[in-house]
Amino acid sequence: GLLIDLQEWTFHLSIAVIAGIIVETIKQLKTQSRSHIRRLETITDFSRKITSTLDTKQVMALLNAAFQNAVEADTYFVGIREGNEMRLELIYDDGEYFENQRVSLDGSLSSWVLNNHQSLFLPDLRKEVILPGVRLVLLGKHKTSLSWMGVPMHNETVDGLIAIGSYRPNAFDRADLELLTNLAQHAAQALHNTHEHEEVELRAQLDSLTCVYNHGAFLRLLQQQAEHAIAEQQSLSLIMLDIDHFKQYNDSYGHLVGDEVDRKSTRLNSSHSSVSRM
């Protein structure tokens, strides 16, 4: 009788354990499914909104919203390479935003991502990072991230990266890396579009021969400067220069020579203007 009771008890205990494992597995699957759905919704929403903007600040605002909604990170930043430095378009660290940050790329994790055009996933920075020429660099507050991920943001006009970090080890997984990669791809294309738009807008304001502001752009700029001077109660000076007997150059040597004189005089005036502002 005792043996049968023990067998029944063991059987019921096994059933309870199995049931507990099944319930816990279902909970984990539900959590993973919700996280996966949230990531997909974030990417879809981000890609839909970002296609309608041609403004760099708006791109950064949308990226910031995507990070806040889908990633549990203590710190993140978006950086653009400029020579040996990185200009941080967006940096968030432990509840605080930092602006107008520039950092050296020498020996940083970011430089490795930029130079290799590859993602870097470091789940536990308590372990030694073995990457040639890499040393850890602190950004934002003086805290050390123990988890870090960086993905390249690269095309013909954009050379940057997106990186996220956590003060906890093993805070991210491969699904987070996939999310970050998708966001970086969409952001790179959006920044490329804004760059192309800005180039077109700038060319529309410049004279095709001399590359100085054309008449319409000059009047708009003059009005802005005048309004600013009035608002700040400051004086505003306007210097006008011309080329003596310019018509004679055209009549004597032809319009091609006249165009060259125009270009050279513009470059000379621009040089003198630059010196006067130093």
What does this protein structure show overall?
55% of the residues lie in helices and 15% in strands. It is an alpha+beta fold and 278 residues long. A hairpin with a 2-residue loop joins β1 and β2. The protein contains 7 helices and 7 strands.
Helix content: 40-55%
Number of alpha- plus pi-helical segments: 7
Low-confidence stretches: 271-278
Compute the gyration radius: what is it? 30 Å
The averaged pLDDT comes out at 80
Order of helices and strands: HHEEEEHEEEHHHH
**What fraction of residues sit in β-strands?**
15-25%
Tell how many strands the DSSP assignment holds.
7
Shape: elongated
What is the straight-line distance between the termini?
A: 102 Å
Instruction: Give a short account of the largest sheet.
Output: 7 strands, antiparallel
SS-derived structural category: alpha+beta
